[in-house]
Amino acid sequence: MASRRLQSTAPAVSLRETLVDAGLAPHLADLLARMPNRTVIVEPRRPFREQGVERNEVMFVRSGILSKFKADNAGRRQIVALRFPGEGILPRTGPADYGIQAIVRSEVLVGKAEDFDPIVEAHPEMQRFFWKLIQRNEAIGYEWLVNCGRRDSTARVAHLLCETAERMHVHNGPMLNPFTQQQIAEITGQTSVNVNRVLADMERQGLITRKGREIQFIDWDEIRRVASFQPNYLHI
Question: Is 213's pLDDT higher than 90?
């Protein structure tokens, strides 16, 4: 049997090494690394940015995890995207139709669009780099839509855990589930009560074991099958 564990945190990385690892040429990464920015510690207990607010800034996650969320008129939230260490949120024109909140305590680099945009506009290679990142985020969004719209409760949670392990580049070692059951519910379109039942069922089926918030995958191939998880969409 293959085994694999899930990690909730990753070491903080510099903006330059993040961009180079993602495929940007070092000399272009240097330009962005020298862009004026500030480091912000974002706690998970309250929104970092509200939806409907102007968003003339760029963000890169150094450590932790950020989420994008939307809420209905009753205040019920749906988490619609995640940003892991090394990933970012680009500037946009006009009010943002989503809010931003940390999943866990996160360290975020925040810069101004007025500094970021001219650098990107002056370098076509950098434009292509960010266009590929936008395509990747779009592919993840399509996969999430299928997850919430077509998969059953167990497959939804299994798929989220598989995707999280892949995006965190986790292959070995003791690692923690970064999500509360309520956060899993807000990502997969369920209730926290149902998520609790699903995790217990997955444990009884021998797919995972849990110790506190630590999750170990007992049979990686089988949980991928249950989740219908094919990671190609993460590697555009």
Answer: no
